[in-house]
């Protein structure tokens, strides 16, 4: 276990002004607080916070962060309190420790809603001070290094949580070495056989290639030095998880991978990066499509480097990253590399703010936090955050040259919403590099995108399945909800207007607005929407405006005009009038359907109808009413782009009061005397009622019959169809579904 003076020396290597007394005080405090506590491995518990602090010294973090690492388990696992830590150290260090205590309680791989809410809390906790995240990542890294001591039933859960949440967060913060180690440790636990297989193949490859890496390093160094450049060339093989992921993504075998080894070229100045690139591309042929310039267009986490792949010595593909030493430090340590001290401060926790909020990684974090308020549910936030964590990026431009960074597979719709939510909502088309292109096109690096907009346009709900950014998805959902609300409000207004006229009153929005409070709503639109959705009766609205009104009179009830339509008034259940049955709306000749505003006119879909036993949906046509379709009806396809019109409805049939319902079947029978009689006989014997019949001859051999029959339910219908298929004269029989 690391001694007290050893920890101080580790910090002093990069911070000559370290507060040795503060570090000593934290070391002793944490060691005494944890006392005789043991880890699962049997080691003293204090060894864990000490190792976490050591990891953070490798990232060259300030004194306050190192102290917080030493104390991060004290509030949770010992008798220490926040007040005591504030008094002994500082309020800033106390806030860091308390933030870590809250995060420790989170379970990020539980049920979806709970996981989403916990991730929301995690990011909120690190929003005020990102050092909380740095300590948490180091804490998770040490826990993963010692995962073998954790009970076996918990290992996979911890590893999956690390792979899903913490490794991507480390990557987004630019801490690539930590991300890769977290991924490898998780991969080793979750897929041990695959991990060992790749490790064995890497070892065999190393034995076969001998000194290949060293020879490529020498040849690259010599070629660059000949041009007068001072550079350090380092080679390394990729980690098992990185190799596995590439094999999965490209569906290739290990032997087909040509970029197992990667090399880094470190120079002093940015200009030398491009000079070294020129040397490499002059000496060895470039692999087309494998050059990326992250210096001129940095990643969101401040990562800067030149990436290229060449066919190098021995016809071996060589991946190269060319960067300055400062760029390399940021690439290795990410947001931790921004631990700059204000005014020469020592970062002792007395008011210093060591992490610059101008860094790209911190900017991404702030944008993510800003989106917390935009999702209507924790699940939406979780979905958005995971999308942002896991996607790589493409860089596109507006016609005026503004750079827009998007995830891979982003579309012009994502681009439009990245520019501004209003642009996305009004988008109707796009030009990519000057050419009219579909809005579903996949954007590529360097594309110039111009969004064509139109006033009054609203985004189709189907866009939600096309976009890849959380911002676009959240905005489309909001717009869809607003459109649905507007539809219901428009429908509700018409219902209220009609109810007021039936009551013999004059409709006045001013009077209605004054009565909103009595209806327990915030606005007039809320009242209309509630009526349209069936949450509020129009009679209640009339009474709120005209308290003297006693209710509708029986003689005011009237059926709507049009075949198959009727209207329900106050006091009636929602009944559907069956075409072909007497028009008198007697309860015995109608069927209740749950889930619909009882004041709306309702009818069955033409050409087939629906029968009890069918799964049914209602399609809302504002100003007209609702049409009931069986769920299997092909006619529903035309409403796929309008999910706001779909209503959840179901049958409410009394078994002791059977009724017939219309259904349409098509029978193809042989064209011979008596065939119609046999079909009619089957229907009659099964207690079906033929209501209409149309016949046509496709050929001299067969006759097609379209028959409207009345049946009790789906089982009754299927029995008739089965019996018809047994008759020799029947070639085929099918039900019509619209």
From TrEMBL:
Residue span, HD domain: 45-144
Residues in TGS domain copies: 392-453
Domain ACT intervals: 664-738
InterPro entries assigned: ACT-like_dom_sf (IPR045865), ACT_dom (IPR002912), Beta-grasp_dom_sf (IPR012675), HD/PDEase_dom (IPR003607), HD_domain (IPR006674), NT_sf (IPR043519), RelA/Spo_fam (IPR004811), RelA/SpoT_AH_RIS (IPR045600)
Record keywords, A-Z: GTP-binding, Nucleotide-binding
Gene3D superfamilies associated with the record: 3.10.20.30, 3.30.70.260, Beta Polymerase, domain 2, Hypothetical protein af1432
Superkingdom of the source species: Bacteria
Class in the EC hierarchy, top level: transferase
Catalytic activity, as annotated: GTP + ATP = guanosine 3'-diphosphate 5'-triphosphate + AMP
Keyword presence, Transmembrane helix: no
Keyword GTP-binding: yes
E.C. code: 2.7.6.5
Function of the molecule: In eubacteria ppGpp (guanosine 3'-diphosphate 5'-diphosphate) is a mediator of the stringent response that coordinates a variety of cellular activities in response to changes in nutritional abundance.
Family designation: Belongs to the relA/spoT family.
Protein name: GTP pyrophosphokinase rsh
Taxonomic source organism: Ancylobacter koreensis
